[in-house]
């Protein structure tokens, strides 16, 4: 059984089931039916079908057909086009279209439509009596219309039904909800134009119908416009507003403007969230194009300057600097290449008419025409991407079939353009910082490690997660005279400040070692340098405090916390291979506040080969001593930073209960590279989260006799 429902303000029943009995021309002659495919061409086919039906009825001379011209025909075609479009977009099924020309009904005849009082099921599932069937002769207040003699006498009418096969839920009664759900003005136009209308729901079909009055009877009373001029005028104004809305948001009704503004704010909020997570300018351009297409435009292109800071000034490019087409996107992917070809011929320049604030606004742009390319002409818009007073690129977009973009869309695009520009500026700042970090990191680390005759070496160096460079450093170099020196250091702290100390310590070590200084002498001189730097920092602070206490200006600038002198823990040594290729080497080293080095013997036992001493940079007159030992063939020397020994898992440290020594012993029999990987993997597996400190280790393994 069909469930018939009528929207408030529409009719009180469904459309009539067929032409009135006893029609002289016959039901078949007054009714036309067509089945349309659910594709974008359905609306055009429906318009042609309706006009063909009107012409056919006029050729047959049917009563009332002579009135199916002019405004009435245009209104019918408009409403049919809107309803068919909504059915195709939201149902996507075959659309059934029926047109019926109702003749004038004789007084006393039963009105068409569903029978009065027939029960049907509402949304709650409970049956309730159906409203009375629509009576074409009823007045606007529901009272039967009267002819000149006082008897009911309805005028002829045009009834059109549009059905789809999608079992949708009933629409809500609020008139603006229809526009929000359907994406058009179909039901709003019907309520503003039609004499009556309604919606019929069946188990697998939904039908929207409406009725338009056709002409007036001879001798009829006053014209409806005269009798109900106030109501008809209001409805006419409402229809005009829907068909030709005012271009400004402020001219809209408050509730409708609020809906549009909320939609724009939601779109911009979503765009900001997505754009803020991108740290690559090209990725920002790609995301911006996909946000715009197809919501705001049919195609979009993003041009970017490749310079670090964009074009200088307000949209004036530097000499020789041109924009690069970073991203092109089209709603039809097959047309992207043709669009790119057309756009690359002429990069967009800055539109004229910059605002007083210095931020250029969006401006119309010539449609980039390409014969046989990506589609017909339309409206195009160029929006400069400006952030911090610098032009970073241009956002170019277009939509076919438009003469110009509405002001609301232009304002939304300008808002989005500012967000895209800020995201591009942020991405470029990050890229510049990353490039600087990579260059500095390459300078902080040795370009390679020297090959020590008869000694196999392996290094693991990992700055903490998210750090561009750390305070840990290593080195292994040829000092001349048959000596090879190695170092593993750790500056107190991390980040750029610690890396700055690293950049000082490693070159000084190389210089002193190649000048012939021994291990202890190198540490003495490096300690004095760092202690004096620390003393200068303390003296600066003391002078500033004393000056402040005396009420005088501070003679020196107080350093920021990150600029204070930093201490250094260092394990430094030299290794001299035994001559004659007998294997093994003589090793001399010293540990200044550093985790002590370990040696894994050929018997699997682990021993400590250095004594702890003071950190470098704490006490200027500290004296350091070195220790020497033989690294026999097959033995392995392991040097690590505190990123290994102090790796945490809850309250436990990796080196608790000699954890490092046990891990080293478990790697007996492994080569230098395999042993370094074994220790690294064990350290990472010790805790559930990535290490929060720099990690570095150096493995030196003496080869057997005859191994170079």
UniProtKB/TrEMBL annotation:
Regions of compositional bias (Gly residues) in chain numbering: 139-150
Region (Disordered): 1-37, 99-161
Record-annotated membrane-spanning stretches: none
InterPro entries assigned to the protein according to its UniProt record, in alphabetical order: Bact_Sigma-Reg, GAF, GAF-like_dom_sf, HATPase_C_sf, PPM-type-like_dom_sf, PPM-type_phosphatase-like_dom
Compositionally biased spans, kind Low complexity: 17-35
The PPM-type phosphatase domain, residue ranges: 455-702
SMART domains listed in its UniProt record: PP2C_SIG
PANTHER family, sorted: STAGE II SPORULATION PROTEIN E, STAGE II SPORULATION PROTEIN E-RELATED
Protein name: SpoIIE family protein phosphatase
Organism classification: Bacteria, Bacillati, Actinomycetota, Actinomycetes, Kitasatosporales
